[in-house]
Amino acid sequence: MCGIVGYIGKNNRAGEVLLDGLKRLEYRGYDSAGMCVMDEDRQQTFKAIGKVSMLEKKIAKSCVESNIGIAHTRWATHGKPSIKNAHPHTSGKIHLVHNGIIENYQQLKQDLANKGHKFYSQTDSEVVAHLIDEYNKKYDFEDSVTHALTEVRGAYALVILHEDEPQKMIVVRNSSPLVIGVADSEFIVASDASAIIQHTSRVVYLDDGEIAVMTPDTYYVKTFSGKNKRKKEQILDWNDEQAKKEGYAHFMLKEIFEQPESVSDALRGRIIAKDGMAKLGGLTEVEKQLRTIERIVIVSCGTSYCAGLVGEYMLEEYAGIPTEVEYASEFRYRKPLVDKKTAVLAISQSGETADTLAAIREAKNKGALTLGIVNAVSSTIARETDAGVYNHAGPEIAVASTKAFTSQLSILVLLTVFLGRQRNMSLTMGKRILSELQRIPKKIDQIFEGEKDIKRIAKKYSKYDSMFYLGRKYNFPIAVEGALKIKEISYIHAEGYPSGEMKHGPIALIDKDFPSVVLAPKDSVYEKTISTIEEIKARSGKVVAIATVGSKDIENIANDVIYIPKTLEMLTPLLMVIPLQLLAYYAGVTKGYDVDQPRNLAKSVTVE
Ligand code: M6R
User: Fold this and answer.
1) Of 418, 438, 458, which marks where a domain is finished?
2) Residue 36 backbone dihedrals phi, psi, to 5 degrees
3) Tens digit of each residue's pLDDT (9 = 90 or more) over 319-343
4) Banded pLDDT at 240 (limits 50, 70, 90)
């Protein structure tokens, strides 16, 4: 899981485009960065450990003006972060950058070493450079790449250069994302469009098993077996501004505050108010099949998994369809019992999460109908599912997912209404849910009015090492999501737990140094939640309660209270999560951490 960029053109600006691209892709990994540029007479490679800014310092003004180059920002998989392991990797006159994992690299490495190749890094990626170089003894550049690929197993997006052919760049995709940006007299390739949109909105998505051979004037695409492919250009509607911070201190904060808009965008054009019905264009083709579905299995990871858990409560209660949620990483290795009557729904912001993709492929093999709720348009999961709904949340740059989550919840509500109305949901109920859903963006804005208080509370609790996040029913998944958020941003150990389970063991942990965030909306389980707070208080535990406006009684028992507006019980997760995102954000900021790029994490986990 890394970010890769390639440039070929006529404007002598390879260095600047590559560096800018790396900065935009840094969220994909930041263990090291590197770049290789060349002209007719020379080739220059620069590498640095850590963030792209370190590479930028190293390059300073020594980078040649060039029309071709490749660059890479790394999230280490094979070999620790070091200069030797930083990309680009080189063998002879071959230079390449790689995102993915070469599964059979050890065997290939051994074979190549027996032929006299010397390896400098511990990476799997370097092996590919040597393999191409080996074939280059017999074949030209292009054929060497094609031959090498027949031996490589695994996931890879590659951008490859040959010193003797500074007018040619070869790009390969197999199970790792890659996009080509098409501009006037130049092409930019990258792991995703955020490194391209500032140069052009015209893009071509390579599919698995495709190779693009590019010159400054043109390019063509063929399959690994040599068959020419005609690719359709798409126009991106993400502009450059959307990918910038717009004055916020961090992308995470910007994205938290974008939620009234991103929830509205998820709903736009998808509500038929008079019919109490959701209109989901992406499901039209499978509408009939959906009527016959008897079971739903949701597969996802991390925050998207938490969204799935909320979906389970909604779909069972309001659509009447038995639903299960599975960690995608587990689903792929179990023997999942799915069939034609099962819809397997993948939820993924990036649309590239390897575990979720593998789960969907497994479900497809078993004959299930596969569906997606995906943010990244034309991403692999979006393309491989039978049907699906896009989030339209715009690019989410911060590693911690925020706006994608509430967008996923919004679409799950729409899906619940859609499937519910196909079954037994009444017109009145459909109308009620949808009209209340449309009020959510304004209600999120109201929560932001309490930002100062949330910031103060976050500061106060950021000194603790461990915390509980407790919730019941619809808000149990939000407790899990809140705990995940504070773990990844502020490195506080947190457990998201069902409130009712507390007394079966974990309560032993409670003391004055182990606070709890208790999710206590005025819902059907409110009284029980109050009992949980009492139990914690009786053991000297501190409590931050998130309650519904008007629940004044809670102030007498909780140490701190944050209020959210009233809404339908099933929609409370959409509001409840907002203070939790802000708590995590401000706890991380208080502790001086890099909240946009927390340690050990990457935005899109495209490896197992
Ligand atoms: O792109 P996806 O939604 O498939 O990603 C799933 C998880 O990797 C992701 O939600 C991760 O847990 C985030 N860092 C959470 O903030």
Assistant:
1) 438
2) -135, 125
3) 999 999 999 999 988 888 899 999 9
4) low
Closest CA to 498 of 468, 478, 472: 472
Interval between CA 480 and ligand 1 midpoint (Å)? 13
In a domain, 475, yes or no: yes
Q: Give the CATH number, domain containing residue 190.
A: 3.60.20.10
CATH number assigned to the domain comprising residue 510: 3.40.50.10490
**What local confidence, expressed as pLDDT, does residue 192 receive?**
85
Is there a single domain that holds both residue 144 and residue 268? no
Please tell me the distance between residue 305's alpha carbon and the centre of ligand 1 in angstroms: 8
- Does the pLDDT at position 245 exceed 70? no
Q: Could you tell me if 412 and 483 lie in one domain? A: no
Active site residues: 2, 603
Say if 243 falls within a structural domain.
Answer: no
| Whether residue 301 has its Cβ less than 6 Å from ligand 1 | yes
- The answer to the question of residue 512 being in a domain is yes
Examine the domain organization and report whether 252 and 110 are in the same domain: no
pLDDT tens digits for range 301-319 = 999 999 999 999 999 999 9
Q: How far is CA 407 from CA 190, 291, 437, 567, in A?
A: 26, 24, 12, 17
**Does the pLDDT value for residue 78 go beyond 90?**
no
Q: Which residue blocks in 26-157 are alpha helix, DSSP H?
A: 52-59, 105-114, 125-135, 141-151
Distance 423 CA to ligand 1 centre (A): 32
Q: Mean pLDDT for the chain?
A: 93
* 404, 438, 472 - which closes a domain: 438
Q: Give, using CA atoms, the residue closest to atom 11 of ligand 1.
A: 302
- How far does the centroid of ligand 1 lie from the alpha carbon of residue 302, in Å? 5
Both 36 and 111 in a single domain? yes
Instruction: Assess whether 124 and 205 both reside in one domain.
Output: yes
- pLDDT at residue number 77: 72
- For residue 579, whether the previous peptide bond is cis, meaning omega lies within 30 degrees of 0, is no
Per the structure, the count of domains in the chain is: 3
Angle, helices 451-461/572-590, rounded to nearest 10 degrees: 60
List the domain range (segments joined by +) for residue 525: 445-594
Q: Which of 350, 377, 489 to mutate to test the pocket of ligand 1 (most atoms within 8 A of CB)?
A: 350
Ligand 1 within 6 A of 391 CB? no
pLDDT, tens only, 459-469: 999 999 999 99
User: Would the CB of 408 count as within 6 Å of ligand 1?
Assistant: no
Interhelix angle 572-590/403-422, nearest 10 degrees = 170
Q: Is 401 in the pocket of ligand 1 (CB under 6 A)?
A: yes
CA of 348 to the centre of ligand 1 (A): 7
Residues 230 and 378 placed together within one structural domain of the fold: no
Instruction: Looking at the CA of residue 404, tell me the nearest atom of ligand 1.
Output: 3
Residues 155 and 301 in one domain: no
What percentage of the chain's residues is helix, strand, coil (to nearest 5)? Answer: 40, 25, 35
- CB 177 near ligand 1, within 6 Å: no
Whether the CB of 605 sits within 6 Å of ligand 1: yes
Query: Does residue 387 sit in the same domain as residue 461?
Result: no
* Beta carbons within 8 Å of 430's beta carbon, 6+ residues apart: 275, 276, 277, 417, 420, 421
